[in-house]
Amino acid sequence: MPYLSRVVIAAATAILLAGCYTATPDPEVSSRDAEWLAQVPKAEQDPIYARYMMKDDTGEEPGTIIVDTKARQLYYVLPGGKMMRYGVAVGNEAFGWTGTAVVQRKAEWPDWHPPAEMKQRWPHVRDTKGGPGNPLGARALYLYQNGKDTLYRIHGTNEPEKIGRAESSGCIRMRNIDVIDLYNRVQSGAKVIVK
């Protein structure tokens, strides 16, 4: 195929997709957030994992979070037939979790307390105070089933280069700016579907 034809097809495809996907600006952040975010390592982002507003095709109620572990995407259903898409890192095969839960707790720059089984696997992990070096990043949404903590979280990360991979111990990791955006939208009690 001639070069000019490929360019025309690529441009036409971009125009058609522009109606389906809308890039969204970063949320406003506090001065503390800005200072701490500046201390977290930066990573190149594959556009497939960028935050986009798009048409909702989930059939779920607004306010619902859906995590597609195979696609490494999290969707937040908005009113008016729209949803926000975010790239995520998910649990590797040995530690992946699926199911339905609710967001019962939300925290900004949370402390990290690794579960006992994680400390057994990796004796070097320690409790860590909230801040730029914390593995939970800027925000955390705590997932519960039947009133019981699942020990799984949707949270930020201090390893943004791993977005798009199956690298975690089961939690759903997001870029810090994306988890701040999601945190600002999500209400306690929100339904979360991880599949």
Automatic annotation (TrEMBL):
Pathway note: Cell wall biogenesis; peptidoglycan biosynthesis
Protein's name according to its UniProt entry: L,D-transpeptidase
Enzyme Commission designation: 2.3.2.-
Keyword Cell wall biogenesis/degradation: yes
An example Gene Ontology molecular-function term: acyltransferase activity
Lipoprotein among keywords: no
CDD domains hit by this protein: YkuD_like (cd16913)
Superkingdom to which the source organism belongs: Bacteria
Organism, as annotated: Camelimonas fluminis
InterPro entries for this protein: LD-transpeptidase, LD_TPept_cat_dom, Transpep_catalytic_dom
UniProt record similarity statement: Belongs to the YkuD family.
Domain L,D-TPase catalytic, first and last residues per copy: 63-195
Signal sequence range: 1-23
Keywords noted in UniProt: Acyltransferase, Cell shape, Cell wall biogenesis/degradation, Glycosyltransferase, Hydrolase, Peptidoglycan synthesis, Signal, Transferase
Active site, per annotation: H155, C171
